[in-house]
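tool=predict chain=A
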Amino acid sequence: MLTPVVKLLTRKPLILDAGWALTDGLISRGLTPFRIFTLPLTILIDFIAFLFADIVLLESQAQARRVRRMLGVPKSKIKVLFTGLNETSFSLKSVQSALITDLKNRIEKLNFPITILFRGKINREAGFENILSAAHQLQDQAAFIFVVGNKDIDKKFPINCITLSEISDDDMKHIYLLADIALGQISSHPRLKYTIPHKAYEAGFFAITYVTSDSEGIREFLNSDSAFLLKEPFPESLVEAVSDLRNLELRTKYAKNIHQKYMEVASQSILNERFEEITAQLVITKARRSR
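tool=predict ok
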């Protein structure tokens, strides 16, 4: 609800960096009775915010089409800009922490040829049950690192899994460097048709092989050359992917390609340039209309 306030106070062109509609986030988590009750208010907040903004930034073309249909936002008002990530939070040189030293020791004790990283929320969109089932099937073949929330740290994991929570950006950088594969969303959740998970950009930045379900959303950023795309989001598909990716040459190819793609279209410098272009065009348009 800050959008109309800022607009009225500043009287200047306003860009709303939304990424997606609040309504979308509410619906994607499942419509419980309470969420159904709050849905009209959430839609109203989105409508007012988008109405008062001169430009609305959204994460993907598919998201833009969805917002236009759902909220009636004019096409001319919407610009697509990848969310990317804050590279500076991962770029500082640092001393390896005790947590990372312990993690290295635990991985070495497991003594598996490949280490797989899952980072994120344990929910339907992530396909956590599929990932956990695959981890069970790979108990004698791969180590898994699960970076999850505090509430999920005590869940039952197989013996080849290491669970962590409350990880700093600095430690997260070292964890990525320890992993051979990063997992995206392994599900067929409807939201994957129009969203690009944040961890896809992290995999690109760190140049690590990324395995994810094939979806309309992710294909706006990656393709079958830059990510290992699962045609079917099943545990068996993930197990087969891990088996294929034991090939170092194949992993190296995916890692190189995803990093190259990231640098071309989603790096911090590229997104800054794109944002400056959008801002400049908005200022020019407003100046012409005020004549």
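The chain has a mean pLDDT of 91. DSSP finds twelve helices and nine strands in the chain.
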